[in-house]
Design goal:
The structure holds three protein chains of three kinds. Chain A is an alpha/beta fold. Chain A has helices spanning 8-12, 18-21, 30-42, 47-51, 57-61, 68-78, 86-95, 158-174, 185-197, 209-219, 247-256, 285-302, 313-325, 333-340, 346-350; strands at residues 110-114, 134-136, 177-182, 205-208, 229-234, 258-260, 307-310, 329-332. The relative contact order of chain A is 0.12. In chain C, helix 8 packs across helix 17 (381-388), helix 12 crosses helix 13 and helix 15 (336-346) crosses helix 16 (357-369). The chains are: A alpha/beta, B alpha+beta, C alpha/beta. The B-C interface holds B 15-16, 18, 20-23, 25-27, 29, 31, 42, 44, 70-72, 88, 90-91, 93, 112, 114-115, 117-119, 122, 135-137, 314, 316-318, 320-321, 324-328, 380-382 and C 10, 13-20, 22-23, 26-30, 39-43, 48, 51-52, 55, 60-62, 64, 66-67, 70, 85-88, 309, 332.
Chain lengths: 353, 452, 391
């Protein structure tokens, strides 16, 4: 059995309860917040458990790494509170069931890039940036054998993660990777933040994609031609699980000559893509999603962004076409880096500009 | 028989007739589980006159004639049960006219669904037709002949409700027209002339369609599909009732299937929504999801799973490769919407009994006056045992439909028997009289709708 | 039962005969499978062919001349592979070729196919013309024999022997000479590349041709090959490596584009013409090259390029593949070539441009058959480019 490493004493003596007072979706003052987090710690019901939109941000807001969001999800599940209607929960649980045979395990004994449940993005792993890496989870039929499961944090189903994650880790480990570069940073969050929080041993070295790209770009520095583009970055919910890696965003932009535009919603108070809010039970969720997305995109436009850089494929699917409609070019970070070293990724060529 | 071959050659030309084993083999088969039966000849006419000559020839020699469109009925409706001449009508593939203002298209009998979809998208993008889920090689005429339904079944009804006029070759070889075209007006309306429509649903046994006029409908700039998901099948009929009450959407299809897992033991209700502006789209979405269905979301018994823009038209189906077997067939039935839960549960039982992963679909027709409920059974064409299992499952399902108070849609021989047995005796007698009047020799697609 | 030994025995039954394979990418008609467009009988459609083949292999259908013609009427254009929605689509042409292998081994193939193959075996070309005449097209142009130049220009059988194709090949060689390209030809040492032989199912002959050609190329220390025909391009690039043939292979369009970009081909004449481009199957669907010929056309002054409705992956095959440019199983009023010419006229073009000698032959003949001489002309891209930079 895996248990969450959560320390109630830390919350008791916390002066700010930033996890809740900083929350963008719940308006809450410090004293009330302090009460509520302790209720949650004790396993009692709290309005916070019902109001939470599962944006993951409080994982970052807590300065002590005390995992308030994982705690919230644990309690939601224990009390039978799920943000989503139960048919959507069941659907999500079933979607992660692999049903098209076992994966082919080749022992690599070298660095790999893990596509997780996004094998369809195999075509993005091209060019000098990825030389020497073997792709694992490159077969759409088998990709749920590599699915990190963290998606179920949005569904109040931490038990599903705990049930399945060990087998996933084992599948990856059987490839005998030295380093595992996680294409999706939720995978990275799973094998670092989540596994640390639950005392799960990870027998390989997870590497954040952006840290990898930054290192590799430095190796290929001579090839870089400054882009001269105004860019913004769609920071995904999962990035909150690895806030120490977020600094690589600006480092990469500086290295490739992209101007990181100043926005109202940025860094710690970015707006998530809101995909998982739209189906939530709370009345008005669908409209709230549209409002959040509208605010987000208008902010990008006001800041003068020409390009919106994405980290997460789900954000890309949700917002990519919307940013394109208002004249901002959507692109994955890895593709932007490829353009900076003079390559021509397929998606960059096909869109305008 | 040779003289018939020679006469066919004289009518359509040598290249368009065959009595060779290869053509006879291919044209024996329906793509489903129906037993193949070989024709004696295959002829592919190009004109109405050619068809008339062939039908007269057939009458003279009492040789069966079986009209064939796309051959995708999946019920054996163009299998030459008593041999004879298969008429492959697909060479008659001209789109004759599109009347934009009156919103109709006049097409020859061999025009395929895909061809019309493509033509309208290119030349009349603000007009669309009700495109069925069959592969795009299916013909418009074949689909209306079997009372098919397409992606405008809600709100506009059966495809056969969308007919403004027909040109028919009667079993005598005479040609006649039904609708306003018969009085020399354009092809814009079927009514108000006295009903002379005794052709649709008869599988050609009362006459071969050579031309038809099809209603077209507005096609808006944004078309997409929103999905609502429930676990309890008993909620599906009331949800459909509520959605159709809004009068704000197009195609509504509920489905559930064992594979892939996300669809298993859940009911996805796909709702097509069309709009000419973001304002219109958001208005419709608000009424449908937030107002009409909001209570299910709040209670947690139903979930909104997003709206995806863009309809795949023509639709692409991979059902036949589910078992990597190249085959499937389904029982389609016109059912009261309220029978959905029962149809689903019974359908699962039958599928599981025959070791077939269950697949069920229900498409709403007009204002939820009925639904087309389909139970699909996949089989492996290379494995006769799976074909037998599928056939048994299909027959059991045919029985089930009649028990549940529905009507089998496009029944094959087995289903036709079930219906004829239950038919009101006067109706049966009327049908018999119609057939005897129009086709005294019983030459057009014999074996079907045989009433004794 | 031959089915048990058929390499695709677990796949061939998976065709549902849904008919997607008859359509082009834009769904506008059911005339994009060349044999089905020609005969409009289900037996000639892709699905019909697969069902009949399986029945034959499974002893449900006896061999006949008619069945053999049905099997050989497929031009291997790959329209079906692009349209078929099911996973085995990548093997459709392979299945047809594998069935042809079996038919060839059984010694019962249509007579014109037999002649085609025998001519190649004996004379190194399907026309049955003497080997010694193979290089004569080059004589008046002063094209050199290959001897350590940078590129081998591989002429191919059509380019070497067919009158119409020869004209285009001569135009190409003049362009290369004008641009100062270092190239040579093999002349009468050249042998058939074998692309059609492979698709006709004569594996033994293909093996022999590949090995012989590769040895010849190696003997001459050839590293870079420019092909006149996309068929040769396809076979050298995709099949010869398996036989040890490791060369850099280009279609001539790649080289023309390079020369234009480098400024070695200069346009001095402007001819204002409405043109359209026919995508050859072996450059387009087989090798994914749709844009370079269009770039070249757009670079030529005066060209107004109008696209046919069926273009790129949706292009209608001229019907010349799998040896049909000579075997001609699809000739007649409804032939794909004649349909294609009508499509070109519909779009208002006065010249139909292509980059394949077989397409050139088929479509040029079709203009005559359709009685459209004077309304539309068929020209090779090299002729168009040469006209614009003639000195």
């Amino acid at each position: 059995m895996t248990y969450l490493k959560f320390d109630t004493e830390t919350c008791i003596s916390c002066p700010d309860t930033s996890c809740l007072t900083e929350c963008q979706h719940i308006s809450i003052e410090r004293d009330v917040a302090h009460n509520e987090i302790l209720k949650i710690a004790r396993g009692e019901n709290s309005f916070v458990l019902h109001e939470c939109v599962t944006c993951y941000a409080c994982e970052e807001y807590c300065p002590y790494g005390n995992h308030p969001f994982y705690l919230i999800v644990e309690r939601q599940e224990a009390l039978g509170i799920t943000p989503q209607p139960s048919p959507l929960v069941k659907r999500a649980i079933n979607i992660g069931i692999p049903f098209r045979g076992e994966p082919e395990i080749k022992e690599i004994n070298g660095p790999v890039i893990n596509l997780g449940a996004f094998s369809q993005l195999k075509y993005l792993i091209e060019g000098k940036l990825f030389e020497g890496l073997t792709i694992i989870s490159d077969d759409e039929r088998k990709m749920f054998h590599y699915f990190c499961q963290l998606m179920y944090l949005h569904y109040g189903k931490i038990s599903v993660i705990k049930e399945r994650l060990l087998k996933i880790i084992d599948t990856i480990a059987r490839h005998r990777p030295t380093e595992v570069i996680c294409f999706h940073d939720e995978c990275f969050g799973a094998y670092t933040s989540f596994c640390n929080a639950y005392g799960i041993t990870v027998p390989f070295q997870p590497v954040h994609l952006f840290e990898y790209l930054y290192t590799r770009l430095n190796e290929l520095k001579d090839l870089i031609k400054p882009l001269g583009l105004k860019v913004t970055y769609q920071r995904p919910c999962s990035s909150r699980l690895s806030p120490d890696k977020h600094r690589y965003v600006k480092k990469i932009f500086d290295l490739i000559g992209a101007e990181y535009v100043k926005r109202e919603y940025s860094e710690q108070n970015v707006l998530c893509c809101a995909l998982t809010i739209q189906g939530q039970k709370k009345e008005g969720s669908r409209r709230l999603t549209l409002e959040i997305q509208k605010k987000n995109i208008e902010d990008m436009k006001r800041a003068g962004a020409e390009v919106c850089v994405f980290n997460c494929p789900a954000c890309f699917d949700t917002l990519g076409w919307k940013v394109k409609e208002i004249g901002i070019k959507p692109v994955f970070m890895s593709d932007l880096c490829r353009v900076a070293i003079g390559e021509s990724p397929v998606d960059w060529k096909e869109s305008d500009g | 028989m040779d003289s018939i071959y020679q006469k066919l050659v004289d009518i359509v030309g040598e290249e368009h007739v065959s009595n060779r084993p290869e053509e006879l083999f291919i044209y024996s088969f329906d793509l489903g589980t129906a037993e193949p039966k070989s024709p004696d000849y295959v002829a592919a006419p190009k004109t109405v006159e050619e068809i008339q000559k062939i039908v007269r020839l057939a009458n003279e020699h009492t040789v069966p004639v079986v009209p064939l469109g796309g051959g995708l009925s999946l019920a054996g409706l163009a299998v030459p049960i008593k041999g004879g001449i298969i008429l492959d009508l697909k060479r008659m593939d001209t789109i004759i006219e599109v009347n934009e203002r009156a919103r109709y298209a006049v097409v020859e009998c061999g025009v395929s669904q895909g061809q019309l979809t493509s033509y309208l998208e290119q030349h009349y993008p603000h007009l669309t037709h009700s495109e069925p889920g069959a592969p795009p090689a299916a013909t418009i005429a074949g689909n209306i002949m079997i009372h098919g339904q397409g992606d405008l079944a809600h709100p506009y009804g059966f495809s056969s409700d969308m007919v403004n006029g027909l040109e028919i070759i009667l079993p005598s070889g005479d040609m006649c027209r039904i609708g306003s075209c018969a009085v020399g007006a354009g092809w814009f309306t079927l009514h108000p002339l006295p009903d002379a429509g005794i052709f649709l649903g008869w599988y050609g046994t009362t006459g071969i369609i050579t031309k038809l006029s099809l209603k077209l409908f507005p096609s808006k700039k944004i078309r997409g599909t929103g999905t609502f998901v429930v676990e309890d099948e008993r909620l599906v009929p009331e949800i459909i009732y509520k959605i159709t009450h809004t009068q704000l959407c197009e195609d509504i299809i509920a489905y559930s299937s064992a594979i892939p897992p996300f669809a298993s033991e859940l009911h996805h209700i796909n709702v097509n929504i069309a709009a000419d502006s973001e304002k219109e789209l958001e208005f419709k979405q608000e009424i449908i999801w937030d107002d009409a269905l909001g209570e299910y979301i709040r209670k947690g018994t139903g979930g909104y799973n997003g709206f995806v823009r863009g309809l795949q038209r023509p639709q692409i189906s991979k059902t036949s490769d589910y078992k990597k077997g190249g085959g499937f067939e389904y029982v389609g039935a016109i059912m009261p919407v309220e029978t959905y839960p029962h149809c689903y549960r019974k359908g699962r039982e039958i599928s599981e009994k025959h070791s077939i992963p269950y697949t069920i679909t229900g498409r709403v027709i007009s204002a939820a006056h009925a639904m087309m409920f389909a139970w699909t059974y996949a089989f492996n064409r290379a494995d006769p045992e799976t074909i037998r299992q599928a056939r048994e499952a299909l027959h059991e399902t045919d029985d089930l439909v009649m028990e549940l108070g529905g009507v089998i849609w496009k029944p094959g021989l087995y289903g036709q028997k079930l219906i004829i047995e239950r038919l009101d005796p006067m109706t049966r007698s009327l049908m018999k009289k119609i057939k005897e009047l129009l086709d005294p020799r019983g030459i057009i697609n014999p074996g079907n709708w045989e009433i004794f | 039962m031959a089915l048990n030994n058929f390499p695709y025995k677990d796949t061939i039954h998976r065709c549902f005969r849904c008919g997607y394979c008859k359509f082009p990418v834009n769904w506008m008609d059911v005339n994009n499978c060349p044999p089905y467009a020609r005969f409009r009988m289900e037996s000639y459609s892709c699905g019909g062919r697969l069902w009949l083949t399986r029945a034959w292999l499974n002893d449900q259908l006896e061999w006949s001349e008619h069945f053999a013609e049905i099997l050989y009427s497929c031009t291997t254009c790959k329209n079906c592979e692009i349209k078929c929605p099911l996973r085995f689509n990548v093997d459709i042409v392979n299945m047809v070729v594998a069935a042809r292998n079996i038919m060839v081994e059984g010694g019962r193939i249509p007579k014109p196919v037999k002649s085609f193959l025998q001519n190649i075996e004996i004379y190194g070309n399907p026309y049955g013309l003497g080997r010694s005449h193979r290089g004569t097209w080059a004589e008046e142009n002063g094209v050199e024999r290959y001897k350590d130049q940078e590129y081998l220009l591989y002429a191919g059988c059509a380019g070497s022997y067919d009158e119409r194709a020869k004209k285009a090949l001569k135009a190409l060689s003049r362009l290369f000479k004008q641009a100062g390209l270092s190239f040579g030809i093999l002349g009468n040492e050249e042998n058939c590349d074998g692309n059609e032989v492979k698709s006709l199912g004569e594996k033994g002959l293909f093996d022999m041709l590949a090995e012989t050609n590769i040895n010849l190329f190696k003997k001459h220390k050839i590293k870079n090959i420019i092909t006149f025909s996309p068929h040769a391009y396809n076979t050298f690039k995709n099949y010869y490596p398996e036989y040890g043939g490791d060369f850099s292979v280009f279609h001539y369009a790649h080289i023309l584009q390079m020369l234009i970009v480098e400024g070695k081909i200069k346009f001095i004449e402007t001819h204002k013409i409405k043109v359209t481009f026919h995508d050859p199957c072996f450059l387009g669907r087989w090798n994914n090259e749709y844009e370079i010929p269009r770039k070249i056309i757009n670079a030529v002054p005066g060209m107004e390029l109008m696209e046919m409705k069926k273009n790129r992956e949706g292009s209608l095959c001229c019907g010349g593949g799998a040896g049909n440019f000579s075997i001609d199983l699809l000739g007649g009023k409804g032939s794909p070539a004649r349909r294609r010419i009508r499509e070109a006229c519909e779009v208002g073009a006065h010249v139909l441009i292509t980059t394949c000698p077989k397409c050139l032959i088929m479509l040029n003949n079709a203009v005559k058959e359709e009685d459209l001489e004077g309304h539309i002309a068929v020209r090779d891209l090299s002729e168009i480019v040469l006209d614009a930079c003639k000195r």
